[in-house]
Every structure is written in structure tokens, then in C-alpha cells.
Amino acid sequence: GLDELLSSPGPGALVGRPAPAARVLLVDLPRDPDLSSGLDPFLVPAGAIGELIVAGDHVNRGYVDDLNATAENKLFVGDALWHRTGDLARWDGEGRLWLVGRVADRVPWRDRVLQPFEVEERVEALPGVGRCALVSGPGLPAVLAWEGEAETLDPTQADPGLAGLPVRKVGRIPVDGRHNSKVDRVLLREELRRG
Known about the structure:
Elements: H1 2-6, E1 13-16, E2 23-27, E3 50-55, H2 67-73, E4 74-77, E5 80-91, E6 97-102, E7 107-109, E8 112-114, H3 116-124, E9 129-137, E10 140-148, E11 167-169, H4 185-194
Parallel strand pairs: 10-11
Antiparallel strand pairs: 1-6, 2-3, 3-5, 4-5, 5-6, 7-8, 9-10
């Protein structure tokens, strides 16, 4: 519910508890996992970040005319079909799921991996900061792009562990045309590479 959402600040985006019709697991899968022993060897420990996979009657068996997408995103384990969402999440102590980013959007920085949603949520709470996005990629080291009224941004105000993280103010963070709340990270990376 909205009251629970608003009264539950935390690491990432709270999405709640799974519906009874869905089976939900968090896993750490290699590129081509051997699933002959099931999913148990790949389950992440309680509180750890893992890739969100779901099973249930609502999960389709494959992509129309796209065998590659089916092979990449569908896991057939025994008589169960699991869908790889590409989302990263963690469970909290109350059985609620917190999204922290996408598998493809993790940002390696120094000796750790930063989860975009966790960093962005804390930075966007700073005065004068509007939307922000933490990105990296080929030819683009980790950078925190941001928009807002503030003239400068010190990410250590949100998290002392972000000392030295490069920041870049932009006129506008691009968003997905269908979801104003979803950063278009591909376009942002391209814009940042161009300077």
C-alpha cells in the first residue's frame, strides 16, 4: 500500500511482497548455468542482491519468433518454467522485495559494484537535485549524471562511500518515452560519451 511505501525508506525501490500466483527467487546465475541440479546452487543468501526470476501460470513459454531471447530469458528447470527479469533485488526482513537496478546497469567502481537505484535514491534526496542516474559502459567510466537547481553536487553528502565518484551536471536526464520514471540509460551513456 501507499502508506507502507511512503513510510519505508530503504536501499532501492520497494515493490512489496509477491502475489500468491507468483513464485519469486533471487539468484546469481553464470552466463550459461547448468540447471541439472536445480536452482538451489544459485540462490543468494538472505539480504544479498540477486537477479529476480519468476515462475507461475502468467509466465509465457517464449518469445514469438525470437529463439535467442527465449534462450537468454527462459529457464526450464524440471517441470517449472522461470523467467529472468533482468532486475536486481534483495529481500528485507519482512519478506518485501526491493529493486536495486538492472543486471545490465550495474556500475563497477573501485573495488565494488554500485547498484544504480540505491545510489540514485539517496542522491535525489539532496537539496537542489532533481533526477540523477549512475551509469558506466564501454568507453565510459562510472559517472553520476544529474539535473537540478543546485550548482554543484557532492555525492558524499548522500553516502560517504561515494568519495571521488565523478559527477556531471546535465540539462536533462533522458527518460523512456513510455515511462517518465524510467531513465533511458542507453541514450544517457551515448550523450555522456559525446561530452
